[in-house]
Write a structure and sequence with these properties.
Strand order of the largest sheet: 1-10-5-6
Number of strands: 10
Radius of gyration: 22 Å
Strand content: 25-35%
Oligomer: single chain
Number of helices: 3
Shape: elongated
Largest sheet: 4 strands, mixed
Order of helices and strands: HEEEEHEEHEEEE
Length: 160
C-alpha cells in the first residue's frame, strides 16, 4: 500500500513539473507581434533583382537581453494573379500574418485582409512567401520562431 501511495505522489509531482514547465515557457516566450509593417512591391519576373538585406532592428528586452527583430533577407516576389487581370483589376493589397521559423522560412501564413476580395491576391501573396526568407527573431543571439504581420502590394506588370 505504501508503494502505491509513493508512486501516486511521484506521478503527481511529475505531472505538476511538466505542466508547470509548459506554462513557464509560454510566459517567457518572446513572441513579437509589433514588427513594423513593410510594403512589398511585386517585381516583374524577368527583371527581378536580388533583395538588399535590411539591417536587423535590435532592442533591449525586459531582462537586459539583446533582442533582434526579423528583417528581410529575400523579399517575397508575388506574381500578379491572372484572375485579377482577366477581371480588369488594376491593383490589390493583402495583409499577411506568418510564423517565421528560426531557419528564416515562413510557415502558417494567413491572409488577414485582401483588397479586392476574391481576385486571387491572397493566394498569390501566400505562395510568394515560400521563396522569401527573413533574418529570424533572436534573443541574445539565439534564433527563435516568431510571428510577423506585413502588407503585400500588387500593381499590374508593366506593358511589354
Amino acid at each position: 500500500m505504501l508503494v502505491v501511495v509513493a508512486l501516486i505522489v511521484i506521478a503527481v509531482f511529475l505531472v505538476l513539473y511538466f505542466v508547470g514547465a509548459r506554462f513557464t515557457l509560454k510566459e517567457v516566450s518572446y513572441l513579437d507581434e509589433s514588427v513594423d509593417v513593410e510594403i512589398i512591391e511585386p517585381l516583374p519576373p524577368p527583371v527581378a533583382q536580388p533583395a538588399v538585406p535590411t539591417p536587423p532592428k535590435s532592442s533591449v528586452g525586459p531582462n537586459g537581453e539583446v533582442v533582434r527583430h526579423p528583417a528581410w533577407v529575400k523579399t517575397p516576389v508575388p506574381v500578379f494573379p491572372v484572375l485579377a487581370m482577366r477581371r480588369g483589376v488594376e491593383q490589390g493589397d493583402v495583409v499577411l500574418r506568418c510564423e517565421t521559423l528560426a531557419t528564416g522560412q515562413f510557415a502558417a501564413c494567413e491572409a488577414l485582409s485582401e483588397t479586392p476580395p476574391g481576385a486571387g491576391f491572397a493566394e498569390a501573396a501566400i505562395a510568394a512567401t515560400r521563396q522569401a526568407r527573413v533574418r529570424p527573431y533572436s534573443i541574445d543571439g539565439f534564433e527563435t520562431d516568431s510571428s510577423v504581420t506585413f502588407n503585400v502590394r500588387f500593381r499590374p506588370p508593366p506593358e511589354p
